[in-house]
Amino acid sequence: MCLILFAHKAHPKYPLILAANRDEAYARPAAPAGYWDDHPDIYGGRDLDRGGTWLGLTRSGKVAAVTNFRNANAARTAPRSRGELVSAYLAGGTDTETYLGQVEGRGDQYNGFILIAGELDALYWLSNRGPGVARIAPGVHGLSNHLLNTPWPKIKRSKLALEALLGAGEKELTAGLFQVLSDRSEAPDHELPDTGVGLERERQLSANFISGERYGTRASTVLLIDAVGGVLFVERSFGAHGKAQGEITNRFRLDRLTTAVTSGRC
Question: Are 121 and 259 in contact (CB under 8 A)?
Protein backbone atom coordinates (compact mmCIF):
# COMPACT_ATOMS: atom_id res chain seq x y z
CA MET A 1 0.00 0.00 0.00
CA CYS A 2 1.48 3.29 -1.05
CA LEU A 3 -0.97 5.96 0.05
CA ILE A 4 -2.88 6.24 3.31
CA LEU A 5 -4.82 9.39 4.23
CA PHE A 6 -6.74 9.60 7.46
CA ALA A 7 -8.51 12.03 9.72
CA HIS A 8 -8.37 11.11 13.41
CA LYS A 9 -10.97 12.84 15.63
CA ALA A 10 -11.22 15.65 13.09
CA HIS A 11 -14.77 15.22 11.73
CA PRO A 12 -17.97 16.00 13.68
CA LYS A 13 -19.46 12.55 12.93
CA TYR A 14 -16.58 10.21 12.11
CA PRO A 15 -13.72 9.76 14.62
CA LEU A 16 -11.88 7.87 11.89
CA ILE A 17 -11.88 8.58 8.16
CA LEU A 18 -9.38 6.61 6.10
CA ALA A 19 -8.68 6.51 2.37
CA ALA A 20 -5.95 4.30 0.95
CA ASN A 21 -4.45 2.95 -2.25
CA ARG A 22 -2.72 -0.39 -2.31
CA ASP A 23 0.00 -0.46 -4.98
CA GLU A 24 1.37 -3.89 -5.87
CA ALA A 25 2.41 -6.12 -8.77
CA TYR A 26 -0.72 -7.26 -10.60
CA ALA A 27 0.59 -10.82 -10.67
CA ARG A 28 0.61 -11.13 -6.88
CA PRO A 29 -2.57 -12.98 -5.85
CA ALA A 30 -4.93 -11.28 -3.43
CA ALA A 31 -8.46 -11.71 -2.13
CA PRO A 32 -10.89 -8.76 -2.11
CA ALA A 33 -12.27 -7.35 1.11
CA GLY A 34 -14.31 -9.77 3.19
CA TYR A 35 -14.44 -11.61 6.50
CA TRP A 36 -11.62 -14.10 6.91
CA ASP A 37 -12.51 -17.80 7.19
CA ASP A 38 -9.79 -18.46 9.78
CA HIS A 39 -10.45 -15.23 11.71
CA PRO A 40 -14.14 -14.29 11.24
CA ASP A 41 -13.67 -11.17 13.39
CA ILE A 42 -11.33 -9.64 10.77
CA TYR A 43 -12.60 -7.73 7.75
CA GLY A 44 -10.27 -6.72 4.92
CA GLY A 45 -8.47 -7.85 1.81
CA ARG A 46 -5.82 -10.54 1.96
CA ASP A 47 -2.48 -11.28 0.33
CA LEU A 48 -2.82 -14.85 -0.90
CA ASP A 49 0.93 -15.20 -1.36
CA ARG A 50 1.94 -14.74 2.29
CA GLY A 51 -1.39 -14.61 4.14
CA GLY A 52 -1.17 -11.11 5.57
CA THR A 53 -2.98 -7.93 4.63
CA TRP A 54 -2.32 -4.29 3.83
CA LEU A 55 -5.44 -2.94 5.59
CA GLY A 56 -8.03 -4.42 7.90
CA LEU A 57 -10.17 -3.99 10.97
CA THR A 58 -11.94 -6.16 13.52
CA ARG A 59 -15.46 -6.12 14.86
CA SER A 60 -13.98 -5.24 18.25
CA GLY A 61 -12.64 -1.98 16.84
CA LYS A 62 -8.98 -2.59 16.01
CA VAL A 63 -7.69 -1.02 12.79
CA ALA A 64 -4.31 -1.41 11.10
CA ALA A 65 -2.59 -0.66 7.79
CA VAL A 66 0.96 -0.87 6.47
CA THR A 67 3.06 0.60 3.67
CA ASN A 68 6.59 -0.14 2.60
CA PHE A 69 9.45 2.30 3.14
CA ARG A 70 10.93 2.96 -0.30
CA ASN A 71 14.72 2.92 -0.56
CA ALA A 72 16.00 1.25 -3.69
CA ASN A 73 19.54 1.21 -2.30
CA ALA A 74 18.63 -0.86 0.77
CA ALA A 75 19.04 -4.63 0.87
CA ARG A 76 15.77 -6.57 0.59
CA THR A 77 16.64 -9.82 2.30
CA ALA A 78 14.41 -9.71 5.39
CA PRO A 79 12.68 -13.06 6.00
CA ARG A 80 9.24 -11.94 7.18
CA SER A 81 6.32 -10.43 5.28
CA ARG A 82 5.22 -6.91 6.19
CA GLY A 83 1.60 -7.93 5.73
CA GLU A 84 1.82 -10.10 8.85
CA LEU A 85 2.35 -6.95 10.91
CA VAL A 86 -1.29 -6.05 10.26
CA SER A 87 -2.79 -9.53 10.41
CA ALA A 88 -0.98 -10.50 13.62
CA TYR A 89 -2.17 -7.34 15.35
CA LEU A 90 -5.76 -7.83 14.27
CA ALA A 91 -5.82 -11.51 15.18
CA GLY A 92 -4.03 -11.15 18.52
CA GLY A 93 -5.16 -10.06 21.94
CA THR A 94 -2.24 -7.79 22.81
CA ASP A 95 -2.90 -4.10 23.40
CA THR A 96 -1.58 -1.74 20.74
CA GLU A 97 1.39 -0.20 22.54
CA THR A 98 2.63 -3.56 23.78
CA TYR A 99 2.27 -5.09 20.33
CA LEU A 100 4.13 -2.27 18.62
CA GLY A 101 6.87 -2.47 21.22
CA GLN A 102 7.27 -6.15 20.40
CA VAL A 103 7.38 -5.38 16.67
CA GLU A 104 9.99 -2.70 17.27
CA GLY A 105 12.20 -5.29 18.93
CA ARG A 106 12.14 -7.53 15.85
CA GLY A 107 12.03 -4.79 13.22
CA ASP A 108 15.17 -6.06 11.51
CA GLN A 109 13.23 -9.15 10.40
CA TYR A 110 11.23 -7.04 7.92
CA ASN A 111 12.08 -4.88 4.97
CA GLY A 112 11.31 -1.20 5.57
CA PHE A 113 7.75 -0.55 6.75
CA ILE A 114 5.45 2.03 8.29
CA LEU A 115 2.64 0.57 10.40
CA ILE A 116 -0.51 2.34 11.61
CA ALA A 117 -2.45 0.54 14.35
CA GLY A 118 -4.96 1.28 17.08
CA GLU A 119 -8.60 1.86 17.91
CA LEU A 120 -10.92 4.81 17.54
CA ASP A 121 -9.72 6.54 20.68
CA ALA A 122 -5.97 6.04 20.16
CA LEU A 123 -3.90 5.47 17.03
CA TYR A 124 -0.15 4.80 16.89
CA TRP A 125 2.50 4.43 14.25
CA LEU A 126 5.83 2.67 14.01
CA SER A 127 8.51 2.35 11.35
CA ASN A 128 11.66 0.27 11.43
CA ARG A 129 13.22 3.27 9.69
CA GLY A 130 11.88 5.77 12.21
CA PRO A 131 12.18 6.98 15.81
CA GLY A 132 10.05 4.33 17.54
CA VAL A 133 6.45 3.88 18.68
CA ALA A 134 4.50 7.15 18.70
CA ARG A 135 0.90 8.11 19.38
CA ILE A 136 -0.82 9.97 16.54
CA ALA A 137 -2.31 13.35 17.42
CA PRO A 138 -5.86 14.21 16.38
CA GLY A 139 -5.98 15.79 12.94
CA VAL A 140 -5.35 15.01 9.28
CA HIS A 141 -2.41 12.78 8.39
CA GLY A 142 -0.84 11.25 5.31
CA LEU A 143 1.52 8.41 4.62
CA SER A 144 3.17 7.11 1.48
CA ASN A 145 6.48 5.25 1.34
CA HIS A 146 8.30 7.27 3.96
CA LEU A 147 7.65 8.35 7.53
CA LEU A 148 4.27 9.69 8.66
CA ASN A 149 3.48 13.13 7.18
CA THR A 150 6.69 13.33 5.16
CA PRO A 151 5.84 16.24 2.83
CA TRP A 152 6.03 14.43 -0.50
CA PRO A 153 3.92 16.20 -3.16
CA LYS A 154 1.05 13.71 -3.14
CA ILE A 155 0.86 13.79 0.64
CA LYS A 156 0.71 17.59 0.78
CA ARG A 157 -1.99 17.94 -1.88
CA SER A 158 -4.01 14.97 -0.61
CA LYS A 159 -4.05 16.20 2.98
CA LEU A 160 -5.36 19.56 1.80
CA ALA A 161 -8.07 17.77 -0.18
CA LEU A 162 -9.06 15.70 2.86
CA GLU A 163 -9.17 18.78 5.08
CA ALA A 164 -11.56 20.40 2.60
CA LEU A 165 -13.93 17.43 2.96
CA LEU A 166 -14.18 17.44 6.74
CA GLY A 167 -17.52 19.21 6.76
CA ALA A 168 -19.09 16.80 4.27
CA GLY A 169 -21.68 14.12 4.88
CA GLU A 170 -21.26 10.47 3.95
CA LYS A 171 -22.13 10.61 0.25
CA GLU A 172 -20.06 13.68 -0.56
CA LEU A 173 -17.22 12.55 1.69
CA THR A 174 -16.98 9.10 0.12
CA ALA A 175 -17.12 10.45 -3.42
CA GLY A 176 -14.53 13.11 -2.60
CA LEU A 177 -12.14 10.60 -1.08
CA PHE A 178 -12.33 8.33 -4.11
CA GLN A 179 -11.68 11.35 -6.31
CA VAL A 180 -8.50 12.03 -4.33
CA LEU A 181 -7.42 8.39 -4.57
CA SER A 182 -8.00 8.33 -8.34
CA ASP A 183 -5.76 11.32 -9.05
CA ARG A 184 -3.21 10.28 -11.72
CA SER A 185 -1.40 13.61 -11.98
CA GLU A 186 2.37 13.50 -11.50
CA ALA A 187 4.41 15.98 -9.49
CA PRO A 188 6.86 18.35 -11.20
CA ASP A 189 10.43 17.10 -11.23
CA HIS A 190 11.74 19.72 -8.80
CA GLU A 191 9.36 18.46 -6.10
CA LEU A 192 10.17 14.76 -6.44
CA PRO A 193 11.97 12.87 -3.67
CA ASP A 194 15.06 10.81 -4.44
CA THR A 195 14.50 7.26 -3.23
CA GLY A 196 16.98 5.65 -5.59
CA VAL A 197 14.55 4.45 -8.27
CA GLY A 198 15.49 6.99 -10.94
CA LEU A 199 13.72 10.10 -12.21
CA GLU A 200 11.23 8.41 -14.53
CA ARG A 201 10.09 6.01 -11.82
CA GLU A 202 9.87 8.81 -9.25
CA ARG A 203 7.51 10.61 -11.63
CA GLN A 204 5.28 7.55 -12.02
CA LEU A 205 5.17 6.90 -8.29
CA SER A 206 4.35 10.53 -7.46
CA ALA A 207 0.76 10.04 -8.63
CA ASN A 208 -1.87 9.00 -6.11
CA PHE A 209 -3.17 6.37 -8.53
CA ILE A 210 -0.58 4.37 -10.47
CA SER A 211 -1.65 2.63 -13.68
CA GLY A 212 1.24 0.61 -15.05
CA GLU A 213 1.38 -2.56 -17.09
CA ARG A 214 2.79 -4.87 -14.39
CA TYR A 215 2.54 -2.73 -11.25
CA GLY A 216 0.02 -0.23 -10.04
CA THR A 217 -2.90 0.57 -7.78
CA ARG A 218 -4.71 -2.70 -7.12
CA ALA A 219 -7.27 -1.46 -4.60
CA SER A 220 -8.69 1.87 -3.46
CA THR A 221 -10.44 1.80 -0.09
CA VAL A 222 -12.57 4.27 1.84
CA LEU A 223 -13.29 3.48 5.49
CA LEU A 224 -15.59 5.57 7.67
CA ILE A 225 -16.26 4.76 11.34
CA ASP A 226 -18.72 6.88 13.26
CA ALA A 227 -18.80 7.64 16.97
CA VAL A 228 -21.26 4.85 17.79
CA GLY A 229 -19.33 2.18 15.90
CA GLY A 230 -21.06 2.24 12.54
CA VAL A 231 -18.67 1.17 9.78
CA LEU A 232 -18.73 1.87 6.04
CA PHE A 233 -16.05 -0.01 4.08
CA VAL A 234 -15.87 0.49 0.30
CA GLU A 235 -13.19 -1.16 -1.83
CA ARG A 236 -12.66 -0.68 -5.55
CA SER A 237 -10.32 -3.09 -7.33
CA PHE A 238 -8.26 -2.53 -10.47
CA GLY A 239 -6.17 -4.44 -12.96
CA ALA A 240 -3.37 -3.52 -15.35
CA HIS A 241 -3.42 0.06 -16.65
CA GLY A 242 -5.95 0.97 -13.96
CA LYS A 243 -8.85 -0.96 -15.49
CA ALA A 244 -11.72 -1.17 -12.99
CA GLN A 245 -12.57 -4.70 -11.89
CA GLY A 246 -15.28 -4.26 -9.28
CA GLU A 247 -16.49 -2.64 -6.09
CA ILE A 248 -17.41 -4.06 -2.69
CA THR A 249 -19.43 -2.09 -0.15
CA ASN A 250 -20.09 -3.35 3.36
CA ARG A 251 -21.75 -1.81 6.39
CA PHE A 252 -21.58 -3.24 9.87
CA ARG A 253 -21.38 -2.17 13.48
CA LEU A 254 -18.49 -2.69 15.83
CA ASP A 255 -19.30 -5.13 18.63
CA ARG A 256 -17.96 -2.79 21.24
CA LEU A 257 -16.02 0.42 21.77
CA THR A 258 -13.33 -0.08 24.39
CA THR A 259 -13.35 3.58 25.44
CA ALA A 260 -15.57 6.57 24.96
CA VAL A 261 -14.74 8.33 21.72
CA THR A 262 -14.75 12.08 21.49
CA SER A 263 -15.01 13.72 18.11
CA GLY A 264 -14.73 17.25 16.82
CA ARG A 265 -11.96 19.12 15.05
CA CYS A 266 -8.76 19.53 17.02
Answer: yes
User: Which residues are paired to 119 by β-bridges?
Assistant: 122
Q: What is the enclosing helix (H) or strand (E) of 54?
A: none
- At 221, the amino acid letter reads T
Model pTM score: 0.94
Distance, CA of 58 to CA of 245 (rounded, Å): 25
Report whether 6 contacts 139 (CB < 8 A). Answer: no
Q: How far is CA 71 from CA 113, 131, 221, 252, in A?
A: 11, 17, 25, 38
233, β-bridge pairs: 223, 250
Using one digit for the tens of pLDDT, what is the confidence trace for 37-61? 999 999 999 999 999 999 999 999 9
Residue 26 lies in domain: 3-253
- pLDDT 10s digits, 118-171: 999 999 999 999 999 999 999 999 999 999 999 999 999 999 999 999 999 999
Residue 206 belongs to a domain: yes
Q: Within a domain: residue 265?
A: no
77 within some domain: yes
Query: Do the domain assignments include residue 156?
Result: yes
Domains in the chain, number = 1
